[in-house]
Structures are given as structure tokens and as C-alpha cells.
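Crash report, auto-generated. Payload:
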Amino acid sequence: MMRSVRGAFLAATMLAGLSITASAQAADSIKVGGLATLEGAFTVLGQDGLRGLELALKEANYTAGGKKIELVKGSSDATPDSAIRAARKLVEQDKVDILVGPLSGDEGVAMRDFAKTHPNVTFINGSSAAQDTTLRSPAPNFYRFNTDGVQWAAGLGDYSAKTKGYKRVVTVAEDYGFPYSQVMGFMLEFCKAGGKVADKFWVPIGNKDFSSIIAKIPDNIDAIYVALGGADATNFLTQYEQSGGDKPMIAGSITVDQTVLGAKGKRRSYLIGTPSAGPIADTWDDAKWKQFVADYKKAFPDGLPSPSLFAHAYYLAGKAMVEGLNEVKGDLGDGEKKFQAALAKLTMDTPTGKVSLDKNRQAIADIFLTEVVEGPNNTLMNKVVKVIPQVNQTMGMDEAEFMKLGPASRDNPECR
Amino acid sequence: MKQFILTTLNGLTLGALYFLVASGFTLVFGLMRNVNLAHGALYLLGAYVGWTVADKTEYWLLGVAAGFAATAVLGLGLQLLIFRRMEGQDLRQTMVTIGISIVLADLMLWFWGGETYQFSPPEVIDGSLLLPFTPNWRYPSYRIALLVAAAAIGVGLWLFLNRTKVGMMIRAGVDDRAMLAASGVNVQRVFAITFMVGAGLAGFAGVVGGTALSIAPGEDVRYLLASLIVVIVGGLGSITGAAVGALIIGLAEQYGLAYSPTYGAVYTFLILVAALALRPQGLMGRRA
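Recovered output after restart:
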């Protein structure tokens, strides 16, 4: 008796779960899946990513190519399998026509492989930025309108070595695809400019206690290159400070973004002067960027003080999707082939300048070299030092030569 | 050498934090045979409440007190209103605690958002101090304070259990509940007190642990998992076991992170497997 009651209870909960997800699809609407990390260490980033996508859709009044757009959200926790589980649900159960996402590096690599198994669905990357997602064995129906982790580091290595005068650094980064890309991008220039990377520390994603890594950081270095995101970056910085560490920081693209600058607590004076590079710069003095920030703030009064890199990347994805759909007048027949061809040819005018795709459907766009300064009202912000125009995936190098460097990994590249 | 000593200290302090969380968990289990899977949620709730109070009043210690008080009251409420009604039904109680933890996690996400919060501990313990007998090695003062606090709580709990009347009742209850009730003790009151102290300890650990690291959604599951591993290794229901288990797990995690970061997480589970295979009742546990 007890057993059957329990069984009925289980069945009831499962049914309740299903009825929420399965909603009817109207005939002339387009269903779009929005996938981001709404759980785990990257929750804030995921929330902001979806704000970017919603902003792009809101601007288009939730219509594109004459059809209504219906957004279904999915959540992952930055692990590849959670992303695939969520994507599978969106594609196979909710039957979305287009999937926008995922957010994090390794999720992107997994999504590329998943995309190959669903050729009739178009995948537009959210903000994931591991280089291999589009550089090695790319999926024909996977489009990335944001630049990747290697591209994001354009200018940073050079600036650290030449202007800041750092000669010997160590790196601290999370142990997965995106930070590998970031460290590689930084080292390409830094090593060429004569810098040395004494050691590289890779920490498991979501790790909270960095004290043993900090104990291993040698004293004879000039700076630490840190590529950690969200909660992880905050934790590392606190513990580094508490242990009496005072070496200046060189930051990865997501280390000192709005989520960290806006984090509560005291860290201001240490952060000032930290160089970084990435696809956006909060305080860029440009009319279109300012308009974008104003639109974001108006649409999401309880959002971050300024759109994060994730909101920006998802916004680009959403905007590309809307423009592509407009081009083909919402025609997604024939396995979405027309729509995909339109996406591949798209050249967008965005808040951060021109964005176009290369032959691997990977974005070529401007990169911003920034430094943390104190802004008005006691806020910290990233001030633009330099804009590096139209950075491509091979960092301006010859493609064959770049491919010879091999994929970014724990031990590649090296320059001790 | 420096690295080894610092890593050992890190392991000890992480173990201290795990002990603070797991002691409440094991206390409740030992007496009530209730695997409280909402313990992690109580940890996080205590941390959030503590942060809010500390932020408003600018007194960190008030935050610690508030974290303890808030979860203690909530724990008392849960025991009186919910668990009391399903006494002796272990499975049902466990299921209910899972439900409570999910509901609490979502409520907290709604109320406090997904941001990472950090405490500002008092000046005295916010910085680094020179380690004695060493050539200029520095170590975070806060983590030393954490170690001291955990030791104090451990001693306090031991005194509470071994030197007070309520503690005596709790120990008697662990051994034989029916006999305790038969000898005229109001078992329900003992249960309520135990649950209150256990939940309060979770909230206290939330503030103290949140200050050492930070608080963000997801911490609840992390610490619930840590407590589970600690009490499985140390022995369910034993405070000494929780202390031993916490130290083993804390040290294993830190040595793993320092000497083989890629496989750091594996050691914890190897210890868990070894404990389950060789001594399923835990190092300090008694056979049920």
C-alpha cells in the first residue's frame, strides 16, 4: 500500500513537471530557446545573458520576418552535460526552431557537437568563448556572433609587458576550455614581447577555497594574470588579500566585469590600475554604446549597473537572429537553410562596432583594451585604453601558422 | 616546506568550517534519526540573514548572532509544526526535508538574488598575521580565528552534552529513545531543543563560513554534501566523529588542490569509498 502511494506521488510530480514545459505552439510564430546558466556559480551572469537576449527581442517587438517570436528559457549550471540536457529538452520537447546559448566555454564545445545531430535547427551561440567551438571541426548550423576567449585577449599581453612593464607573471584560471583560450590569447603577445609565465595554476570550476593555490604563488613575480569568473573571482581576490598578497593583477575578460566591480565589500584600491581586455568596455565614449547601456537600464531597472559581457553577447545573438529572420521573411522551411545562409552573410552594425562572420561562422569584431579606474559616485569602471579593430580568430596570424600552435590546453602554450 | 605548512593550515581551517556545519547535522541525526537534508539551506539562510543584519548595523558579531538566532527559530518551527507530525517515519521526514530545502533555496534566490555577497569582518581579524617560528610567513588572521571558534564550539558542545542535564537527556535519547520517554522525560521538548541547536549551528556556520569565503546560491548544496561526507566518514550521530571526519576531508581537499589540482575532488570520494567499504558505521560511529 505504502509503495503504491509513493509511486502515485512520483508520477504526479513528473506530470506536473511536464505540463509546465509542454505549451502549445501557434502556427505562425517562431519558437526560440534561450539557454543560460541560471544555476550554480554563474547564476548572475546567466541572468544577465538572458536580459541581453530579451533586450534584442524587445527592440524588435518580439516579431521578426512578420512572425511572432516566442521565447522559452532553459537553464544549465555551466557543466557540458547540464547544457546538453537543457538543449535536448528545448529542441526535442519544446520543439524550438532556433536555440540561443549556451553561456560557458565547455558548454559551447558540447553544444557544437549536439548541433551536428540536429541539422534542421539553427544554433546561435550565447556567450560561450572557447576557441575550439568554431575553430576545430565546427558544426555547419552553429553560429557565433561573439568573439572568442583568445580574441578577447587582443592587446593585453603587449600592454602588460610594454606599458605596465611586467616581465614575470603566473596565471590563475579555471580548469576548462574558456580560460585555456584566455591564457593562450594573453601569452601569444606577452611571450612575444619577452615576458615569462613562471607557472600556471588551474583550479576546478566553482572551487571556493583558493588558499592552497595562493600558498603556491611564488614571490619573485611582477603580477598575476587572473581569469576567473563571477563568484570565483570574488573569492580568490578576498583570500589573496587576506593572506597578505599584494602583486598587481592582470585580468581576464570576465574577471573584473560588472559583477565583480559591483560586488559588495572593500577591494577598490587594489583593483584600480588592473588592465584587462574583452569584447566590451563599460565606459566607452561612443554614442551607440551609450544608447545600448541606456536601453538596457530602461528595460531592466533591477539589472546590473551596466550590461555585462554576457548581456552583450546574448544581445548580439538575438539581434543577429532578428536580422536574419527579417532577411528571409521568417521562412524557416527546407531545414532552415535559407535562414542559415542569411546568417552566414550577415554584417551587423552593433553597439560595439561592426560584426561579421568568417568561413567557420565565427565573429570578427573590435576588442577593447581597458584599465580599471575610479568613476563618479565611488564606483569602479573599466576605462578604454585602446580599441583594437576587427580582430579575427587567428589574431591576425596566418591561419596555417596559427593552427600549428595547437589547441589551447593546460600546458599549451608555454614560455617559462 | 612553506607550502606544506600553509596547506596543512588551510586544511585545518577548512576542516574547522566543515565541523561547524556538520556538528549540527550529526547532532540532529544522532538523536532523532532524521536525516535533515535541509541543513544546507539553513546554512545559506543563516549566512544571508547574518549578512543583511551585519550590513545594516555594521556590527559583524551582530550578524553572527542573527544568523544563529534566525535559523534556530526556523529550526524550532520546523520541528514543532512539521517533523513532529511524522515522527518515526524516516523516509517521509527525509523527503520533506528535501522539499523544504528546494523551496528555501528558491525563496532565497528570489529575495537576495544571485549576487555574491561578502562580509566585512572586524578589523582585528581582517588581515594577515605573522606565523610564529617562521621567516616572515603570513597567514590570514580570519582563518586562525575560524579555527579557534570551531575549537570553542567543539568544546562547548562537548560540555553541553556531557555536563548539563539537557545534554544528558540527549545522550540518553541517542541510546534509547523509548526508555528515555518511559523515565518521565518530555522527549518532545528534548527533540525541539536539539533541532533548534542543530539548525542554529548551521546558521552560525553560514555567517562564519560565508565570511571566510563568500555567499552565493548553490552554497547550500555544497555544504550539505560536505556535511554528508563528513558524517559518513566520521560516523553518524557522533560529535567527535564529525570533528575527525571534518579534519580528514578538509585536509584531503586542500592537499589535493595544492599537489594535484586536476584530481583534487577525487580524494574526497576515495576516502568516502574506503570508509564505506571498511568501516560503514564511520570512524567513530557505533553499529546500529
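Post-recovery validation: Residues 1-5, 7-26 of chain A have pLDDT under 50 and may be disordered.
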